[in-house]
Amino acid sequence: MIRKILVLSFWAPLLWAQGNVSSCYEFPRDAVEQIRQDVAYLASDELGGRKPGSDGDELSREYIMAQFRNHGVEPYFKETYLQEFSVPNRVDRPADGNYFRFKGDALKLDEAYYPVMYSGNGSFKGETEYVSFGIESQKLDRDDLDDEDLKGAIAVMEISSPDGIHPHSKFKDWHDIAKRIRLLKTKGAKAVILVHTKGNANSPKSEFKSLESIGIPVIYVSDPKIAKKLRRSREVEGSVSLHAIEDVTYNVAGMINNGQRRTIIIGAHYDHLGFGGESSRYTGEEPMVHNGADDNASGVAGLLGMARFLSKTQDPVMRRFNYLLVAFSGEEMGLLGSKAFVERTATRQESWYYMFNMDMIGRMEDDRLAVNGMGTSPQWRDLVEPIECGLNFEFGESGVGPSDHTSFYYASVPALHFFTGTHPDYHKPSDDADKINVVGIYRVLGLMSSIIRNTPQGGDFVFTTTKIESTKAPKFSVTLGVMPDYLYSGNGMKIDGVSPDKPAAKAGLKAGDIVTQLGEVQVSDMQSYMQALAQFNQGDKATLLYQREGKVEKAQIQF
Prior knowledge:
Keywords: Signal. Residues 1-17 form the signal peptide. Residues 478-550 form the PDZ domain. With 559 residues, this protein is an alpha/beta fold. It folds into 3 domains: 12-88 and 247-454, 3-Layer(aba) Sandwich (Aminopeptidase), CATH 3.40.630.10; 94-241, Glucose Oxidase, domain 1 (3-Layer(bba) Sandwich); 482-558, PDZ domain (Pdz3 Domain), CATH 2.30.42.10. It has helices at residues 31-42, 55-70, 147-150, 177-186, 224-229, 293-312, 336-344, 380-384, 405-409, 438-454, 503-506, 526-533, and strands spanning 74-75, 82-92, 99-102, 105-106, 113-115, 122-130, 136-137, 142-143, 154-158, 191-195, 218-221, 235-240, 243-256, 263-269, 322-328, 352-358, 368-372, 392-396, 415-419, 482-484, 493-498, 514-518, 521-522, 541-548, 551-558. The strands form 4 sheets. Strands 1, 2, 13, 14, 15, 16, 17, 18 and 19 form a 9-stranded mixed sheet that branches. Strands 4-3-12-6-9-10-11-5 form an 8-stranded mixed sheet.
């Protein structure tokens, strides 16, 4: 559920008054300039995009630790602020350890075949056994497997399903290739060869940074002629040798111990994309540093602002709690840092009261602020809704999202995520410090302080589970080439930015347009938009309906 509250004006923070529980906490005014300096350094070219394992990664955490030390924030891990963990860098495939021979001829790696991320290391030789789609289901009245023939065999399996890969497939629960490979392994297959001779499907990834090994060799034969021949029993042999190379990075955690029973966690991730990579939206040919000013130098600046304030405040209301301040790494790679932090501090979580996560709080416009995770405790609304900080709140219920509060939610910790919205510079080199609304960050800190002030000291802070709006995100083989406005709560999907030379741009769409239908699917929100997009493949055409300045327009999309 999304709910808006309109109160006061942009300059309301300058008129804050203490004593009224609905007023905004008077956060120190000198914080604004320090926030500006924090963002300027963390998002400077000198730090090279703060990719985990890089020199910029080290410089970032040295800066964070220096700020902690200078303001009396104690190390959380005995005598250190640092918690080490590993992140994936790449997977090496030595040429002498990878081969596949069919009819005595060696197929060329990456041209006719390649190992996939589910593969284990090892050699295989023997007869193939074609298992069609590899499905075994009484419910669906489908059984592709012969247990006797599979024992010790090399299974050949289609990557599609009997009715293709799409959101309305009868066999949707079997679209997961890994699930089918595991079943083949339990039936005795000693290796699996994936092919695509039936139905629609995207080829498995040929490049990946980490492994999800199922324990037997698994390759994908991309040559269509050979793939068809493998549907008949053939003698084959091959070998797979994959080696995951990892980098080391660190979470940075400090403690303000006020001798209290309850601890409030305040976090933000400090890593970004370095010079780009898979998550980048940059389409240029030359590598460029991605400074990540909003994502997430803004959140780290907020974290440091709270550290400075909470370490020196003499306000007895704010000193009713201890504060655990954490700068996470590895967020851009899948919340790796916060996951490691939560898993390795399990014995210290009894005092944890609730968690604040700041991720992308630097682009506030029209006083808008998303506060996600409101459903993680029934107490949040009584704490947050009465506060008058001059903000237009967009409340989200779910405790699960693409940021570090999710790791705490899964540890049963009530958690809020503060977010000022996405923008055309998201995951691009243009996300720079000069575009940051520093006063907006300052206002978020005022809101957070107000929530702490309103929090009763006694009793428990109740955790509740929330509905996960999408248990599994749809997989896309096409892109429209737009940046959605994630704070838009009306009907449809509002476009915040359009990428050049992509289908939307070629069809004449622009920022501010609201997509209401794509193909045959009505688009009412982000979820329905993603479901609509998942139905298309490269080369498909679709009619798109959208609103522009109150009028319904039509566009033809070529994917």
